[in-house]
Design goal:
With about 200 residues, the chain is of the alpha+beta class. Helix content is about 50%, strand content about 10%. It folds into two domains: about 5-105, no CATH class; about 145-190.
Length: about 200
């Protein structure tokens, strides 16, 4: 199977009313998917796609021909299945090239490669950003949990301290009462032992 370069491009002015070549019905196309030979830079296929099929292509969900590698379109419907032109037209399993249109030059292939390279860099950057954001969210969640646990621990310790303070207060009151009783008992004993001390 030949090596192909797929490029998503905006619809050209003359093709703005095109419908999607990949799904049934007359869904409005939003872009074209140009297929170019990696080896010769010649265009081997050019199809229009709606928003949904564009997303499917980006997620590698559009069917490709196992024989030549081109995308299979709705126009290639054969015995209830999507079949590539190379099978429908009984082409040999070799590179099928469309003629280069007059307004197209080899330089367009150079720009398409740059577009694809930049898209790959963009996708890589988006994945890295998502990974970093996910890591930050995990760290933030962890910090929130840690903070919540610390707040709960502080509240628990405060409650324990309040209980302990209340217990200390009660014990101090009991001790004060015992001291008062003890002093009163001593005074009673001293009164009985030396009654004249009370007379002055």
């Amino acid at each position: 199977m030949q090596e192909l370069l797929y490029t998503i491009l905006e619809l050209e002015e003359w093709n703005r009313r095109a419908t999607c070549d990949f799904c049934p019905g007359l869904n409005k196309a939003v872009c074209q998917i140009r297929t170019r030979s990696e080896k010769t830079d010649k265009i081997v296929d050019n199809a229009c796609a709606c928003e949904e099929c564009k997303e499917k292509f980006e997620n590698n969900q559009l069917p490709k021909c196992s024989n030549c590698g081109r995308l299979e379109t709705k126009d290639n419907f054969f015995h209830g299945k999507h079949v590539c032109d190379c099978i429908r037209n009984k082409e040999a399993a070799k590179e099928k090239e469309l003629p280069i249109l007059p307004h197209e030059r080899r330089q367009t292939a150079f720009y398409e490669r740059q577009i694809n390279g930049l898209r790959e860099e963009l996708n890589t950057a988006e994945v890295e950003i998502d990974t970093h954001l996910e890591a930050l969210e995990i760290a933030e969640d962890w910090h929130k949990r840690q903070k919540q646990e610390l707040v709960e621990e502080i509240e628990r310790l405060k409650k324990e301290n309040n209980v302990k303070e209340e217990r200390i207060r009660q014990l101090e009151e009991q001790l004060a009462q015992l001291n008062s009783q003890s002093v009163a008992q001593i005074e009673v004993k001293e009164t009985k032992k030396w009654p004249w001390r009370l007379k002055k």
